[in-house]
Amino acid sequence: MVYGVGYCSRESKRYGNWKNKCYVTWKCMLKRCYSSESKYENYKILGITVCDEWLDFSVFEKWFDRNYYEIDGEEMQLDKDILNHGNILYCPENCVFVPKAINMLFVKSKNRRGDLPIGVYYDKQNHCYVSCCSVFGKNVKAKHKDIESAFERYKEVKEDYIRTMAKVYIGKIPERLYNAMMAYKVKITD
């Protein structure tokens, strides 16, 4: 058993092979959801789990073989919530492989930012709220009188950046990922 839940119902040369991408991806997915390590505590708090069928490595392996792809020079990652915003279940319908550069667009850092909406912080020196969004490695910032206008500016910049990145990767990523990025809406509750 892997993390008390994972198993393999049929013979597989990949199962237990730490050099195999499929096995490493599967085990890391289980680790995030079922490990007792404190760095994965947030997964438990949010109720993020793996569907019953993917607890069986042999089932995940078939899905992996149909869906994994590579882009030269890019690290590929399994994502569960770009296709379905806010999703908490790793399963075939919700998951897609994405280049790390795309996956990083959707990091929310809830623990670090506190009670303010995503993309907003309070500037004590200037007594204002600031919207801040990293776009191609440069911070796009603007000062605002209130939280709502700061968030709306962040939302506008972030959604535009996500659409721009989708266009950069068009033809390299699955169509369903491209479409999800083009339609993605940042929520104040992110």
Describe the structure.
The chain has helices spanning 21-34, 41-46, 57-67, 100-103, 110-113, 147-168, 175-183; strands at 49-50, 76-79, 89-90, 96-99, 120-123, 128-135, 138-144. The chain has 190 residues and is α+β, with helices and mostly antiparallel strands. The strands form three sheets. A three-stranded antiparallel beta sheet has the order 5-6-7, covered by helices on one side. It has a two-stranded parallel ribbon with strand order 1-3. Strands 2-4 form a two-stranded antiparallel sheet. A hairpin with a 4-residue loop joins strand 5 and strand 6. Helix 6 (147-168) runs antiparallel to helix 7 (175-183).
Keywords:
alpha+beta; three-stranded antiparallel beta sheet; 190 residues; two-stranded parallel sheet
SS field, number of helical segments? 7
Task: Give start-end ranges of low-pLDDT stretches.
Answer: none
Rg, nearest Å: 19 Å
Strand order of the biggest β-sheet? 5-6-7
Q: Tell me which oligomeric state these chains represent.
A: single chain
Helical content band: 25-40%
Strand element count = 7
Shape: globular
Structural class, by secondary structure, is alpha+beta
Q: What separation lies between the terminal Cα atoms?
A: 34 Å
